[in-house]
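hey m, so remember when u said the tokens were messed up on ur end? i reran from scratch. heres the input so u can diff it against urs
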Amino acid sequence: MNIFQIVFHNYTSPSRTRKPDNKVAYPLDYRGELTHKTELCTLCGTCVYVCSPIAIEITREAERGVWDYDGGRCTYCGKCVEFCPTGALNFCDHSPSTITNRQQELIKDIVEYRSCTRCGAKIIPIPMETLVKLYHSEEAAQYASKIYELCERCRSRLHSQSIKSGISGVNG
């Protein structure tokens, strides 16, 4: 094929350029915009630990926790999503929206604390979805959820009481 045939072919054939309404489908493992589900987040800090560009920060306050994400620093490596134990972080199947100023890249999510069912201390219980994954059964997760609604001190006391009652044979 010589150059004249190529030029003639390009001018006589229809355009192969995609139109805006004819988008290419994203692959299944596409890492688009990062989403954070506050109802699943326990502020464990795993995402902060694995984020090498320091795009995620967690601040624990008296009544709530704050999860900060800087989209300008993120390299979309996926480590935070991969290692999040509760599945609170995911990538969308679309690319992030166009940013016109720096403030649009910053995401701040509030994670509310709950109260311990015994003493009232502020805690973040492990979500039910995560407990089902851990215990491999809905029934065991239901039982464990009652324990994880307690603060660490009350859980420790509960376990100590159950050990004492198991040794002594007396429920109490």
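this time it looks ok to me. Strands lie at 34-36, 56-60, 64-70, 89-91, 106-112, 114-115, 122-123. if urs says something different then somethings off w ur setup not the seq
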